[in-house]
UniProtKB/TrEMBL annotation:
Record: residues binding Mg(2+): 254, 256, 362
Cofactor(s) it depends on: Mg(2+)
Species whose genome carries this gene: Daphnia sinensis
Subcellular localization, as worded in the UniProt entry: Nucleus
Any one Gene Ontology cellular component term annotated for this protein: nucleus
Family, per entry: Belongs to the DNA polymerase type-X family.
Name of protein: BRCT domain-containing protein
Keywords for this protein: Magnesium, Metal-binding, Nucleotidyltransferase, Nucleus, Transferase
Superkingdom of source: Eukaryota
GO MF entries: DNA binding; DNA-directed DNA polymerase activity; metal ion binding
Biological processes, Gene Ontology terms: double-strand break repair via nonhomologous end joining
Amino acid sequence: ESQWLVECSKFHSLVPVAGYLLPSLSVPESTPVNIPQEEASVYPDPDFDLNKFNECVAERRAVLDHQNKDIAEALDLLREYWSLCHQTVTDERRALAFARAAAAVKCLPFKVTNPRQLKGIKDLGDGHALRVATQIVESGHSQEVEEKRNDKKFLSFQIFCKVFGVGPSIAKKWYATGLRTAEDVKKRFDQLDVSKDNMISYGVAFYEDLNRPLLLAEAENTYKHITAIAQRILPSVVTSMNGGFRRGKSSGHDLDVLFSYPEREHNDHGLIAAVRDELDKKGLVVWSRSSRADGPKGAEIDSSPLPGGSAKDHLLLIMIILKYPLDDRFDQLERRDFSTEKNLGLFQLADSARPWRAIRVDLVGSTTEQYPYAQIGWTGNKQYNRCLRQYAKDAFNYSLSSTGLYDKRQHRWLPAQTERDVFDHLKLSYREPWERNF
Ligand code: DCT
Ligand code: MG
């Protein structure tokens, strides 16, 4: 603990590190308020120091089983409301502000029992989020949250955005054409102009399957099967089960498998494509799409892309809808070419009795040198990533992504062998994956 204090306090005194002065860590939105010593007794935990808590948001830890779930749930609902139903850039910023506020509450190491304990918390601010959090502490209830929770438009947007491949802009179009439920979408799918996008057809066809939580045991079983295939192809491959499961969740919406293998050719999906092909031969693949993931978006220098060569700026991604056998055994299943199915055929197939259910799996390919960065990025969570990336930019003018850490002043990539090396580069204490549930 004392380590990070030393590190964080450096930023405020502008000491020279690596040849230049570190700028202040201040993030615009909300200014932390130093509360006077005599009020410190408001906290049930005598060791809690608000100033320390506010000094460096990226140093905070958030475990899944944190102590302020009711407040965080309310703030997360408002985040979701504004991220799905946004009309303007201001609404999108509002969603991000609620995401930061919810994360702050998840990081508090005590249960809030008195609204005074919420005062001065960086990222909870002194406005809307604080007001809602205060209502929850005082009465366990927020009128605004309940109204938004039951808002008909929001409920439809939630349903639509749970269709694989659909985001807020498509949800908005569907809502505008009078659709309200998943059934509506299925019935009128042929009239919708997105029906050419086969990803969404599969999302609609397998809506129920893909929205049933994937349990940890099922994810582990699938992960083992996929890893065994990869090791048969390339015995030296390194794999990890990332995403929410690595952060300690017991269920999730998909399985994220990260692979690390030596340098690859430009856009060559190599090993992960070979793994997908093996799964396909066994009749296990319903749908798949190869793409690239997570270059350092928005991290250009003077609007020219970051230098680094072909494989530096992106990871390889294969999104799959996989058959999960109902008996948990990955034996050969009847292979069938779904790509020739029109929507109706696909929908009929999805409705028919079958010995499997559809699950979502992402295969992510990284090079050996990208791996520690890909590990952090694909562990998440999303808000933790945002926080780390913002911190890297504000404190060091570094660009952090799932492919690497780029020093924009010295024009060089910072190499890392392990996740700990990445935290060291950022002068942060190491955080275990289960402490990254912002
Ligand atoms: N990620 C991110 N930004 C996004 C989406 C994802 O940084 N816009 C990162 C964080 C987690 C990781 O990629 C995997 O993404 P998801 O599977 O969407 O998230 P998850 O935390 O694994 O959630 P779930 O348990 O529901 O799969
Ligand atoms: Mg996931």
